[in-house]
């Protein structure tokens, strides 16, 4: 039985970040910064409540009579209780022989074009541990992008405004960044396991390292770009964030409407249509929050029974990263143009290049992961490099077509002048030809 290490990591990050947020908000209260205190508490308590709700929902305690567990969730102690329960199951499973087991069939990764199907016995204890791992993975994603990401952006913005980085705030920002990167990593692993549920997926340490580096560069540069842009253009940053959020929030709903699929009814039997709609709205809300800071490995598809797309859309990922890179470059350019006197002691061109190179480094590690370290790369029908090359070919074709249209326009502008000159020259030449012809005839 696999050790529930992911459950422990999720709990440690959750508890440490919540404790750090409470300590920092107390410091803001002592300094008289009520607005920063309220925002810090808001970004700490709202995702904490959503984590409790997700754990309670995934374990399907809605249909079970467990008042003590419900009370502990209301007291915001749900993750601690679930972690203790997971470790109790893990350590007691070896001493108790289970009378009932279930048999699962998984296919191995293909070797030389062949894939074998293997059977594995799964006991009740291992099934419960899988449920705990799945619940904590989803809770880590919620905590990362609905709590840690806004919290990191807020604290970095406060550091720039106050021109000071305190020890407590720096520790809190490091914890928030680790929580976001870990949540993005769990999102990647969840997407792989959902898409390739029929296969026995084993993720190697090199894959974890590539994902960690990819997400670290991508998220750190994205947060820094938003904070720098917001420090000089405070009103416009809200419009940029709102536009990004609304686009990604309504994108799954527009796809669902265009597919004309029936409304999903199999999420939870106890939920009504209104409850199902609320759950779907929360899911798309989380999806928009993830794509605000990084690429969501799990693409929401409301017409699918699992609500997650099973296909690997390289072109959609390529377009996302090209547009996001252009957006980051534009926001940095606006910051460079409208930067205040505070940035006189900062080498703005160097910082501009460092942030763009950092984002490109994240894209580089992403390419390395999908090209060499992905556990299911043998199942890909095409690679991401092929999608990149095809997108660059399309861009090259568009540029060449634009140049050709410009050249044709210039030729069309010059052609009336040339024809006018030609007509004028023909009029001057014709009388001479006629006079020469007349003189020749008279001499004859």
Automatic annotation (TrEMBL):
It comes from the Eukaryota. GO terms for cellular component: plasma membrane. Residues 1-20 form the signal peptide. The chain crosses the membrane at residues 35-58, 167-185, 206-229, 235-254, 274-298, 318-338, 350-372. Residues 425-444 have a biased composition (Polar residues). Keywords: Membrane, Signal, Transmembrane, Transmembrane helix. Residues 416-444 are annotated as: Disordered. It is found in: Membrane. It is a multi-pass membrane protein. Belongs to the XK family. This is XK-related protein. It comes from Lamprotornis superbus.
